[in-house]
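Team,

Forwarding the record for the chain on the shared tracking sheet. I've put the sequence and predicted structure together so nobody has to dig through attachments.
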Amino acid sequence: MHGVIRRYRVRLGTVEQAAHYAEKGFLPIVRDIPGFVSCHLLDAGNDILTCIALFETEQGAAAGGTSGRRSGPCRRS
């Protein structure tokens, strides 16, 4: 099992709105990566959204780490 952990600072709207945006735009992209197992969005407080994605393979995790580079309402922190 391999994972990717990313933290984003929400710059427009709320963490809840950013999570909704991620569910509609980012998560469908990640779900299509071979070896995808699960993805979890966590409100880490102070306008930080944390994404934890799990993959069966190292290659899947590497692809998950580079997907969704468009920042949308969040900026990677």
